[in-house]
Amino acid sequence: MTVTLKVTVTLHSAMDPRRAFFERLAEEWDAQQPPDREEHLRRLLAPFREDLQASGSILEVGTGTGALIPLLREHSPAAPVVSVDLAHGMLRRARGRCPDAWLVQADVHSLPFPTGAFDRAICHNVFPHFRDRRAALAELARVLRPGGLLLILHDLGRDEVNAIHRAAGGAIGHDLLPTGGELYRLLMETGFGQVEVEDGPDGYRAIGCTEGASHPVLFDNR
């Protein structure tokens, strides 16, 4: 697939201080990650292998430097993977990692894709940074087909993520994960008919299915 780097950044997102924050971090981001990062990401995706293999198309929101792209391709070799980020510097690094990736600079609150364009959407370590979570979830529901699946995944539990963001301060000091109950209600109110949320020492994760899903989504069955 030829690299496509579109720019669809709105006025609001251009002024969002989070964008400048992650632009500044882009060049050093990978150097700050633990050496076993790839293995950790493999374990993170492992419970969703069947869901990803069944996918016809995948949207990854908040790709950063593209660490997840090769693993998504492993799970879904026949599915196109479109990776989005707000920070152009992050996408430059992702392009260096995956020269043939489909990369789009865009705002999750106003995605440049038609309704029902994707079977799966993944938000890894990015959800707290959405400035309007309700609007972002509604937009993700829009670009998913009926019965499409949204995965919200975090490497750490809610308390640890929130402590890290508070300590960082500045542009992300108030970017906090909601409680499981709050996220459950948000998902149910923004177009997701089947929802599961888990928060524990192994991480914070949520699954939501858009209306039309033909199978239950239960963490206990994974």
Report on this structure.
By secondary structure, the protein is of the alpha/beta class. It has one domain: Rossmann fold, CATH 3.40.50.150. The chain is built from 9 helices and 8 strands. Strand 2, helix 5 (69-75) and strand 3 (81-85) form a beta-alpha-beta unit. The longest helix has 11 residues, at 133-143. It is globular and about 40 Å long. The two termini are 32 Å apart.
Structure at a glance:
The chain has 222 residues and is α/β, with parallel strands linked by helices. The chain has helices at 11-15, 17-25, 37-45, 49-53, 69-75, 88-97, 133-143, 158-168, 180-189, and strands at residues 4-8, 58-61, 81-85, 102-106, 118-124, 144-154, 192-200, 203-210.
What's the CATH H-level superfamily name? Vaccinia Virus protein VP39
> What would the average pLDDT be, to the nearest integer?
88
CATH architecture, please?
Answer: 3-Layer(aba) Sandwich
Class per helix and strand makeup:
alpha/beta
State the end-to-end distance: 32 Å
Q: How much β-strand is present in the residues?
A: 15-25%
Q: N-to-C SSE series?
A: EHHHHEHEHEEHEHHEE
Helix count from the secondary structure assignment = 9
Q: Categorize the overall geometry.
A: globular
CATH class: Alpha Beta
Which spans of ≥5 residues are poorly predicted at pLDDT below 50?
1-12
CATH topology name, in short, is Rossmann fold
Read across the widest sheet, the strand sequence of neighbours is: 1-4-3-2-5-6-8-7
Provide the number of structural domains.
1
* Main sheet record: 8 strands, mixed
Secondary structure: helix percent: 25-40%
